[in-house]
Amino acid sequence: MPVLTNPPLALYVHFPWCVRKCPYCDFNSYTLQGELLAEPYVARLARDLEAQAPEVAGRTVVSVFFGGGTPSLFPPACIARVLEAARRQLTVAADAEVTLEANPGTIERGAFREYRLAGVTRVSLGAQSFATGTLAALGRIHSPDETRRAAEELHAAGLTNFNLDLMYALPGQDRAGAVRDVEEALALAPAHLSHYQLTLEPGTPFAARPPPLPDEDEAAAQFEECAALLAAAGLSRYEVSAWARPGRQCRHNLNYWTFGDYLGVGAGAHGKLTFSGSGEIVRTVQPREPRRYLAAAPGELTRQTVPAGELPFEFMLNALRLTAGFSLEDFIGRTGLAGSAIAAPLARLLARGLLERTAGGYRASELGLRFLNDLLTDFLPETPGMSGGSALSIARAGAARDRARPLFTGAERAIE
Question: Rounded to two decimals, what is the model's pTM?
Answer without folding.
Answer: 0.91
